[in-house]
Amino acid sequence: MSSCSPLGFSCSSLPTEGCRACSLYSEEGLGVAALSTLYGGMLLSSMFLPPILIRKLGCKWTLVLAMCCYVAFSLGNFYASWYTLIPTSILVGLGAAALWSAQGTYLTIVGNAQARKTGQVSKDVVSQYFGIFFLIFQSSGVWGNLISSLVFGQMPTQGTIPEQQLQACGASDCLMAVASTNSTKRPSQDLIYTLMGIYTGCGFLAVLLMAVFLEPVKDAQLEGEGEKQAPPFWSTLLSTFKLLRDKRMRLLILLPMLSGFEQAFLSGDYTRSYTTCALGIQFVGYVMICFGGVDALCSVLFGRLARHTGRTALFALGAVTQLACIIALLLWKPHPSQLPVFFVFPGLWGMADAVWQTQNNALFGVLFEKNKEAAFANYRLWEALGFVIAFGYSTVLCVRVKLYVLLGVLSAAMAAYGAVECMESRRADGPLATEQTKPAEEGVTQTKL
């Protein structure tokens, strides 16, 4: 699968063609509308579907079913219109929440099972597993965007971008009308067909590999308790909302929202107002390759570092890095003569995103181990809300204002996370404290083939 972020998707929930939508269909407004619809569907799906599907189908077949929705989105891009992209965006949005919740549940179960076998601390193993997953996942952004860049590289030589257009790039972009140039024209339909054919073929292959080779897992805790007394249907349906009774969850919802805001900015605003505006659409893929490559390498690195540095240090690193990027983007005037700088920002952004993706997921899996499905459904619910809000105001606000909004969300999310860490440090019997003092073999989950 390709990536721009859910299993083979990386804006964090769309395929590479989805990431390019804001640039390819910016004039008609179709790109932003499709992405907004996608995350709106994901938001609604997160409220109800994941716990039900995971309990009924299991993690494996929930993943397979959801991935088929992603393939449908790729098919919709063969003839991009309001009648094809909007329905398939809704479909992939509905499948995305179930896919990511099942993926998080799956990794948490196998991580805990491995910790029991080796006598390690569960939270360390789970964090490492998420790091390995996001290494592979984010690397799809490298290959997917490399393919798109090579395909679109067959376009005619790009003309010089006028200085008048450059003045409106970057933080100064306030949705001003810019004359169409070779740098902003859509690729030919033949090139789009070639690209979509490659992506769709990869999608079908991924579904087939998952269905044949992925080993099913079951949570022994749910199996032991569920067989005796299965939870009522309505209890399962509303489990996502019930978890909001936990004060920690109410505070932590800002972390996935931050993830949605920052990914939406990079995939929508940075690629449009900085890269496409100053360099041309042919550079969007290469910029996203830089983001995906750094994100992938840092994901596995941070997954391993967490056991030595602790989670708090990594969160601090991510916050400081993204803060520095936001301030720099507010001040920077993008120009084609500064080509290396266009890749520095997505590289640093990828490093910060690696912290959010690996540590956020591990945090939710450890703190809410007994309600994993509902916890990850909440994560995708609030992340989707962040995407919806960000894409919703993308056609209304200036880029400068969007950066200030992102700065505010980052500050609030870090304050809320700090409050949760303080709460956990004071709870001698809390999940974090327990795992620091008890061996992992006291866990209650196991993997069954």
Q: What share of the residues does DSSP label as strand, in percent?
A: under 5%
Mean pLDDT: 81
Helix-and-strand structural type: mainly alpha
Low-confidence segments, ≥5 residues, pLDDT <50?
Answer: 1-17, 430-449
User: How many H/I helices?
Assistant: 18
Measured between the Cα atoms of the first and last residue, the distance is 25 Å
Q: What is the overall silhouette?
A: globular
Number of strands: 0
From N to C, what is the helix and strand string?
Answer: HHHHHHHHHHHHHHHHHH
Strand count, sense and closure of the main sheet? none
Fraction of residues in H or I helices: over 70%
Radius of gyration: 21 Å
Walk me through what this model shows.
- The structure is a single chain.
- The protein is mostly helical and 449 residues long.
- It contains 18 helices and no strands.
- α12 (254-278) runs parallel beside α16 (372-392) and α13 packs antiparallel against α14 (311-331).
- The longest helix is centred in the N-terminal third of the chain and has 47 residues, at 30-76.
- The radius of gyration is 21 Å and the shape is globular.
- The protein starts with 15 loop residues before the first helix and ends in a 12-residue tail after the last helix.
